[in-house]
Design brief:
455 residues, seven-stranded mixed beta sheet, binds pyridoxal-5'-phosphate
């Protein structure tokens, strides 16, 4: 008997030539971002201190296909196209009749999907004459990706790393520094906002919301510096669509069409990256898929947040965007999936949830680690704790299929590997890990901070 095909591989020349911009296919227009001071819709000039014009153009574009510059495709070629796997081992371990596929983004030099946009952002900034980028990082994945991209395109990179991750993941910091990034724990003494938070809460674990405020302040107060965000924004989600464009072709190679497409969601970028090309087919009436975003119970913006205008950061410096949010003052518990600890959600993902195009589920961290360990032992790849949220949902879908006697085709995004998350695995394996469910009154208190903002 021949080998069962496990990997579906595309050659270098199949790296997509264009990103997919879902704005072209939305059922209703995306509500515009508003100025944080005036509450009025913002224009390109308002964003110019933070981003180069090429990226601002992409942020507001309604064109369906946006050409990928050749230097970006060339840099992608070091790890793209990424492999699509058939999860024979996981299927066996689950005793399931479901067919499970995953797109593996952990093959990038950073170990996650994040370089797909870091490379593009570094390219456009370099092209515009920028010499330094400021950014935030949660788990350290994004800071690593931008440090690599900065090194490739000759840009300095300053990273504000959420304090809880900085303490939990020293090797991530060293990795960023090895690539030339300058890393500081956030809240930091380097910005006005960081100093303000430290004065009020000297032992603050930090949050993505705080780190974003610091990086935005850094960029807005220096002429040589622009800001770079690893998720949430329209152009960031669009850069990630290379994942789904490749996956569509690879699923066709496998002779299958997924019934369900699943990804974890922190700010929404790897979710959008895999699912938007599928969602586009759904919106255009060409195919139908169930599309599920999976988030942590500790930061459940899509499942328990409210859909309205809020700030992207704690310091109220970013534009107001309409999104599913837990409130900009919300500081999630320091769960181990650091990349999922964000109070908001990408406006595009939020709109699709509001319109019923996609669904959302929330998962406890012990359940996600249980699924991650099962995956490691059956597939051999150690998943990032963020990605394990998607695996937990897949395990649930496979068990449902077993109970119902059906054989669905399931596809998920394995957004990264977990080689820098071993202290979290240690806590899980030793039984020390605990679940955290956001209490209703803490959520209500945080949402009260939205009073007075536009809806
Ligand atoms: C491996 C991995 N997956 C997922 C995420 C969540 O981010 P996003 O929702 O933007 O994909 C992160 C963020 O750091 C990550 O490192």
């Amino acid at each position: 008997m021949g080998l069962k095909q496990t990997k579906f591989i595309l050659p270098d020349e199949r790296i997509p030539h264009a990103w997919y911009n879902i704005a072209a296919d939305l059922p209703v227009p995306l509500p515009p971002p508003l100025h944080p001071g005036t509450g009025q819709p913002i224009g390109p000039d308002d964003l110019a201190p933070l981003f180069p014009m090429a990226l601002i153009g992409q942020e507001v574009s309604a064109e369906r296909d946006i050409e990928i510059p050749e230097p970006v495709r060339q840099a992608y070629a070091s790890y793209r196209p990424s492999p699509l796997y058939r999860a024979h081992g996981l299927e066996r371990a689950l005793g399931t009749s479901a067919k499970i596929f995953y797109k593996y983004e952990g093959v990038s030099p950073a170990g996650s999907h994040k370089p797909n946009t870091a490379i593009a952002q570094a390219f456009y900034n370099k092209d515009a004459g920028v010499t330094r980028l400021a950014t935030e990082t949660g788990a350290g994945q994004w800071g690593t990706a931008l440090s690599i991209a900065g090194a490739l395109f000759g840009l300095e990179v300053k990273v504000y790393m959420v304090r809880a991750s900085y303490d939990q993941k020293p090797y991530r910091r060293i990795l960023m520094e090895t690539y030339g990034g300058q890393v500081v724990a956030s809240p930091s003494p380097d910005t006005n906002f960081g100093r303000k938070v430290l004065a009020a809460t000297p032992d603050s674990p930090g949050s993505l919301g705080i780190a974003i405020s610091e990086a935005v302040e850094d960029a807005a107060t220096r002429d040589d510096t622009k800001y770079s965000l690893g998720s949430v924004l329209n152009h960031v989600l669009m850069h990630q669509t290379v994942i789904g464009i490749e996956a569509l072709e690879q699923m066709a190679m496998a002779g299958e069409q997924p019934d369900v497409v699943v990804a974890c969601a922190g700010g929404g970028s790897n979710f959008a990256g895999l699912t938007f090309p599928f969602a586009g087919q759904k919106l255009r009436g060409e195919a139908d898929y169930r599309i599920i975003a999976v988030e942590p119970e500790a930061a459940p913006s899509l499942t328990r947040g409210t859909y309205r205008y809020d700030f992207g950061d704690t310091g109220q410096m970013t534009p107001l965007v309409k999104m599913h949010t837990l409130g900009h003052g919300f500081i999630p518990e320091p769960i181990h999936a650091g990349g999922l600890r964000y109070h908001g959600m990408a406006p595009l993902v939020s709109l699709l949830k509001d319109q019923g195009i996609i669904e959302a589920q929330a998962v406890h961290q012990t359940r996600s680690f249980e699924a991650g360990v099962l995956f490691a032992r059956s597939e051999g790849i150690l998943p990032a704790p963020e990605s394990s949220h998607a695996i937990a949902a897949i395990v649930g879908l496979a068990r449902e299929a077993n109970a119902a006697g059906t054989s669905p085709v399931l596809l998920f995004n394995l957004s990264g590997h977990g080689h820098f998350d071993l202290s979290a695995y240690e806590r899980y394996l030793s039984g020390a890990m605990q679940d955290y469910e956001l209490p209703d009154d803490a959520l209500a208190e945080s949402l009260a901070g939205l009073e007075g903002l536009p809806v």
